[in-house]
From TrEMBL:
InterPro entries: Myo-inos-1-P_Synthase, Myo-inos-1-P_Synthase_GAPDH, NAD(P)-bd_dom_sf. One of its GO terms (biological process) is inositol biosynthetic process. It comes from Actinacidiphila bryophytorum. The lineage of its organism: Bacteria, Bacillati, Actinomycetota, Actinomycetes, Kitasatosporales. Belongs to the myo-inositol 1-phosphate synthase family. It holds the Pfam family Inos-1-P_synth. Residues 214-318 form the Myo-inositol-1-phosphate synthase GAPDH-like domain. One of its GO terms (molecular function) is inositol-3-phosphate synthase activity. This is Myo-inositol-1-phosphate synthase. It comes from the Bacteria.
Length: 393
C-alpha cells in the first residue's frame, strides 16, 4: 500500500520528530524503538511499512522543516546525525507542506483543506491518506445546534462565523476528502454527532483522543493494580511541568482544562470511583520539549492502614509521542484498507480519553489492540493463507 500521512500542525515538534523518525527508519539508520507496531505481536504485513509512508500537512507557521529538526537536535530531542543524514528528504517533505488555508466561510476553508489533501494523494499516487491532528490543544467549544446533524452542519458552515473548532473542521475536511482521521490531541475533533454521521456516510474509520505518553500511561498500569488488590485509593494528585509549544499553549485556561480532564478519566473508569485530587499542568519554559510529572497516591490497606505511593516521570514529549503517531497512522490506514469504518475503539491503548466504553487498564487495551491487528492481518491475507509479519519494513 502506498500510503500518506497528512499532519495538522506539520511544523511542530511532534510532527517533525515523527517525520525525522520515519525517514531514518526508511534509510535503516535507526531501530523502531517505542513503536508498538514493531513489537513481534503486532508486526503485520497488513500495515504499511515505515518506508512506504509519505508526509504532507498544514500548519499556521512557516519556516523550513529542516530548520525545526535542527532546533530539536540542539535541544536533545532527536540525534543531530540523523537530521543531517535525512536533510534532503526533509526538504522533499517540506515541498508537501501547506499553510493552513482560510476561506470566507468555514465551508470554503474546509474545501481548501480537502483540496490540498486530495492533491497530495493524487500527486504521489497514494492508495490512502490518513489525517492526524498533532496541533495545539483547543479549549472545549460551546455547543452549537448544527453539531447534531450533518444537514444542519453543512448549512451552517456556508454562513459566516465559526461553527466548528479547528480540529473538527479538519475532521470534516478529511472525511469529505475520503480520508480517515485521528486526533492525537484532547481537542474535539470528530467527537460530534454530525461528524460521526459524515464518517458513516463515507465509510471511514476515525480514532482519538489525546495520546497517552507519560503520567497517564503509568496511571493505566498502576490503577488496575490497586483495583485488583482491593486497595482503597483515597487521593491521587499530580503536578505536570511542561515546556515547549505544548506547555506554552496550556497556559490558556480553556486548553489546560481540556487536557486535565482527559488525564483524570482513567482513574474513575478503572477504579470505579473518583478519588480526591486532581492534575495540575504548569508551564516551565526552560525545560523545552521535556516534561516532568510527580504524583502522590494515598491509599488504605487491611484494617484501614494508611499508605502512599509517589512516582516521578521525566521524559521527552515529542520522542514519546512520535512513534505512537506512526503506529496510529499505520493501523488506521490498514483498518481503512480492510473496510473498517466508524470509531476505532480498539485504539484505546494509545489514548488518555479513548472513544467508546472501553477498559482503561493498559494490559487489557494491549490485548484488544493485538487482536485487532491480527484481524486486519487475516483480512488482508489471500484466501486460505495466513498473513505473515513484515510491518517493520
Amino acid at each position: 500500500m502506498r500510503a500518506g500521512i497528512w499532519l495538522i500542525g506539520a511544523r511542530g515538534s511532534v510532527a517533525t520528530t515523527s517525520v525525522v523518525g520515519a525517514l531514518a527508519l526508511r534509510a535503516g539508520l535507526t531501530d523502531p524503538v517505542g513503536c508498538a507496531t514493531a513489537h513481534p505481536d503486532m508486526n503485520s504485513a497488513a500495515l504499511p511499512g515505515f518506508g512506504d509512508l509519505r508526509f504532507g500537512g498544514h500548519d499556521v507557521t512557516t519556516g523550513p522543516l529542516a530548520k525545526k529538526a535542527e532546533q530539536l537536535a540542539a535541544a536533545g530531542v532527536v540525534p543531530a546525525r540523523l537530521v543531517q543524514a535525512v536533510a534532503s528528504e526533509l526538504d522533499e517533505v517540506d515541498a508537501d507542506l501547506r499553510h493552513a488555508p482560510e476561506g470566507a466561510t468555514q465551508a470554503e476553508t474546509a474545501a481548501l483543506i480537502a483540496r490540498d489533501i486530495t492533491d497530495f494523494r493524487t500527486r504521489h499516487g497514494l492508495d490512502r491518506v490518513v489525517v492526524v491532528n498533532v496541533s495545539s490543544t483547543e479549549a472545549a467549544p460551546p455547543e452549537h445546534p448544527a453539531h447534531g446533524s450533518l444537514d444542519a452542519l453543512a448549512a451552517a458552515l456556508a454562513e459566516p462565523g465559526e461553527v466548528l473548532p479547528p480540529s473538527s473542521l479538519y475532521a470534516y475536511a478529511a472525511f469529505t476528502a475520503g480520508c480517515p482521521y485521528v486526533d492525537f490531541t484532547p481537542s474535539t475533533g470528530a467527537r460530534l454527532p454530525a461528524l460521526a454521521e459524515l464518517a458513516d456516510q463515507q465509510a471511514l474509520p476515525y480514532g482519538g483522543h489525546d495520546g497517552k505518553t507519560g503520567e497517564t500511561l503509568l496511571k493505566s498500569v498502576l490503577a488496575p493494580m490497586f483495583a485488583m488488590r482491593n486497595l482503597a485509593v483515597r487521593t491521587w494528585s499530580g503536578v505536570n511541568l511542561l515546556g515547549g509549544g505544548d506547555g506554552a499553549n496550556l497556559v490558556d485556561p480553556g486548553a489546560n482544562a481540556a487536557k486535565s480532564v482527559s488525564k483524570q478519566r482513567v482513574l474513575h473508569e478503572t477504579l470505579g470511583y473518583a478519588p480526591e485530587g486532581d492534575t495540575r499542568i504548569d508551564y516551565v519554559a526552560d525545560i523545552g520539549d521535556f516534561k516532568t510529572s510527580w504524583d502522590l497516591v494515598t491509599f488504605a490497606g487491611f484494617l484501614g492502614t494508611g499508605m502512599c505511593l509517589q512516582f516521578t516521570w521525566q521524559g521527552c514529549d515529542s520522542a514519546l509521542a512520535a512513534p505512537l503517531v506512526l503506529d496510529l497512522a499505520r493501523i488506521t490506514l490498514a483498518a481503512h484498507e480492510a473496510g473498517r469504518s466508524g470509531p476505532l475503539e480498539q485504539l484505546a491503548y494509545f489514548f488518555k480519553d479513548p472513544m467508546g466504553d472501553v477498559d482503561h487498564a493498559l494490559h487489557a487495551q494491549w490485548e484488544t489492540l493485538r487482536t485487532f491487528v491480527g484481524e486486519l492481518s487475516a483480512a488482508g491475507a489471500p484466501s486460505g493463507q495466513a498473513a505473515e509479519g513484515g510491518g517493520g519494513r
